[in-house]
TrEMBL record:
Organism this protein belongs to: Siminovitchia sediminis
Name of the protein: Cortex morphogenetic protein CmpA
Gene: cmpA
Superkingdom of origin: Bacteria
Length: 38
């Protein structure tokens, strides 16, 4: 997981920003699907 992504996640959790957390989750799953699938 990229460092910038981790910091964004931590910030969102600290601020209890549900919208941001959902958005980051969707981005992460999309990223993994694109880059980690064979």
């Amino acid at each position: 997981m990229p460092i910038w992504f981790k910091s964004q996640m931590q910030k969102a959790f600290l601020e209890k920003d549900r919208y941001q957390i959902k958005l980051l989750n969707q981005c992460w799953f999309y990223y993994r699907k694109k880059h980690c699938s064979p």
